[in-house]
Amino acid sequence: ALVDQGVFEELARDYVPQLYDCMQDLGVISTISLSWFLTLFLSVMPFESAVVVVDCFFYEGIKVIFQLALAVLDANVDKLLNCKDDGEAMTVLGRYLDSVTNKDSTLPPIPHLHSLLSDDVEPYPEVDIFRLIRTSYEVGLPGVTTLGVLRGPPLGVRHTLPLLTRGSPASLLVLRTGCRSRQLSTS
Question: Most buried of 21, 36, 83, 178 (most Cβ within 10 A)?
Answer without folding.
Answer: 36
